[in-house]
Amino acid sequence: MSAQIPAVRSTEQLREKWMKPEVITGSEILLRSLVLEGVECVFGYPGGAVLYIYDALYGFNDFHHLLTRHEQGAIHAADGYARASGKVGVCIATSGPGATNTVTGIATAFMDSVPLVVITGNVVSSLIGTDAFQEADITGITMPITKHSYLVRSVEELPRVIHEAFHIANTGRKGPVLIDIPKDVSANKTLFQPVQSIDLRGYNPKVVPNHHQLEKVAAAIKEAERPVILAGGGVVYSGGHEELLEFVTRTEIPITTTLLGLGAFPSGNPLWMGMPGMHGTYTANQAIQKSDLLINIGARFDDRVTGRLDGFAPHAKVVHIDIDPAEIGKNVNTEIPVVGDVKTVLELLNPLVSRSDKADAWRGQISQWLADKPYKYKDSDTELKPQWVIELLNDTTKGEAIITTDVGQHQMWTAQYYKFNHPRSWITSGGLGTMGFGFPSAIGAQMARPDRLVISINGDGGMQMCAQELAICAIHNIPVKVVVINNQVLGMVRQWQELIYENRYSYIDLAGSPDFVKLAEAYGVKGLRATNKEEAKQVWQEAMDTPGPVLVEFVVSKEENVYPMVTQGSTIDQMLMGDCE
């Protein structure tokens, strides 16, 4: 194995090197522009339409390029990089199937408001629209799932397009932007003059809120007897976690954080109620349903949070703080809308608010619910329970790791039993629920944060959608610890079939899956397995003590369910408690 990939030179050094005007190809313009945007790592997969770009990359060392084993791996890695770093993630794919293989990743980033710049190649300009070999209308295909997209018509446009793309991706409600570059554009030459200004008519996201609306929020807090804060991913994306902590400290309002909001508020704080919604805590769901003031900060009232909309927070006056005005009032009627960047809004709101004695009894009720109704499961001395495995990971890392997950039961158990202390420590596909996301996103996260322990938690189903990316962990000695929670079944589907479809288990058996330890070893990665608690403790410690990548398979109970659970069509206080009953 080679040493871990070294850091690139500072942006300041590189800007000085590449700012000078020069006649160069479109491919060279692309690389220089990426450097000038502060890009340090690109994930990609070459093909015919991007050969000029990859030719320019030959010997280029002013940012890293990681060759993934699938374009979907590349875009999920770029997504993980963006979520862990707060920077724009970048990936490159060729035309046709290369471009279409990024579509799921683009949709994943779009749903979760993750800033990406996706660069695709296309056939030469004269062949566009002729159904040429490996041609696909990727700008048309991705129009509903990008913030904006560009089909570059001339090499002279490239510097402006790239600069605009990064600006659009990383401002306002963040999201993916696609740049489609025909092969002749990447080959043609022009005088490169870096673009530093932005003039986008009609695109001017509102950052600073209306002060009158903030005064309304402060007045509502003063009068509320049962206030609740619902904080989402917008807090993380805005960098507003410290302002949120100050807001809660000033007001002493109980707070719940959505799936994508985990880490936005420290889990050890006594006012934190856990996660709300379908697999949320009893306390969070009861508090929302009984609240008289619900303050939504950077969340979008997703259906997994609200349950049945006509029964959601029936007694609450709703405040909604969001950078995207289209989200306010979209799903839940909002009495006090506040449009603006979450960090900026909270900075301006904090001096206006204070603790209200009217909510003292409410705080006591919240504390009682937290004590009486924590997450519970029936442990076993003879078999591994997945919840116990997550608790093991939490205890041994003190909640300080960056955790990525795939999608399914293991995702929910991790959200329930791992306690996050910091923002950008939790990376998961929330809105789209993309299987295959977890492991590649961990590679991106590790590239973004080489100083942090990164753990990728996967089910045995999702792991098989991305296992080929083990190759780049081995080649580059990327020290991700890969956890496979193996219950030999599509667990969340099995749970629904048990509880809702009267035990009709249809096509969920994954018993023919590979030996994950041998699979890891085939790629040159250490593989370990545990089937009981003692083995689990031993192999996990060995994984932690190993400097490079390690895959650890935990063989767990097939019948275990995620509880609590709110079934579709129910209100969020109509909870199946299962083992918590």
Q: Can you walk me through this structure?
A:
The structure is a single chain. The chain has 23 helices and 19 strands. It is α/β, with parallel strands linked by helices and 581 residues long. Helix 4 packs across helix 19 and helix 17 runs parallel beside helix 23. The longest helix has 15 residues. The radius of gyration is 24 Å and the shape is globular. The chain starts with 10 loop residues before the first helix and ends in a 26-residue tail after the last strand. The mean pLDDT is 95.
Layout: helices, strands, pairs:
Elements: H1 11-18, E1 22-25, H2 26-36, E2 41-45, H3 51-57, E3 64-67, H4 71-85, E4 89-93, H5 97-100, H6 103-111, E5 116-122, H7 138-141, E6 148-151, H8 158-169, E7 176-182, H9 183-187, E8 189-192, H10 211-223, E9 227-231, H11 233-238, H12 241-251, E10 255-257, H13 282-290, E11 293-297, H14 303-306, E12 317-322, E13 336-339, H15 342-349, H16 360-372, H17 386-397, E14 402-405, H18 409-417, E15 426-427, H19 438-448, E16 454-459, H20 470-476, E17 481-486, H21 491-499, H22 516-522, E18 526-530, H23 533-545, E19 550-555
Parallel strand pairs: 2-3, 2-4, 4-5, 5-7, 6-7, 9-10, 9-11, 11-12, 12-13, 14-15, 14-16, 16-17, 17-19, 18-19
Antiparallel strand pairs: 1-8
Pathway: Amino-acid biosynthesis; L-valine biosynthesis; L-valine from pyruvate: step 1/4; Amino-acid biosynthesis; L-isoleucine biosynthesis; L-isoleucine from 2-oxobutanoate: step 1/4
Family: Belongs to the TPP enzyme family.
Catalytic activity: 2 pyruvate + H(+) = (2S)-2-acetolactate + CO2
